[in-house]
Amino acid sequence: AQSVAQPEDQVNVAEGNPLTVKCTYSVSGNPYLFWYVQYPNRGLQFLLKYITGDNLVKGSYGFEAEFNKSQTSFHLKKPSALVSDSALYFCAVRPDRGSTLGRLYFGRGTQLTVWP
Amino acid sequence: NAGVTQTPKFQVLKTGQSMTLQCAQDMNHEYMSWYRQDPGMGLRLIHYSVGAGITDQGEVPNGYNVSRSTTEDFPLRLLSAAPSQTSVYFCASSYGGSSNTDTQYFGPGTRLTVL
Question: Most buried of the four, A21, B12, B17, B42, by CB within 10 Å?
Answer without folding.
Answer: A21
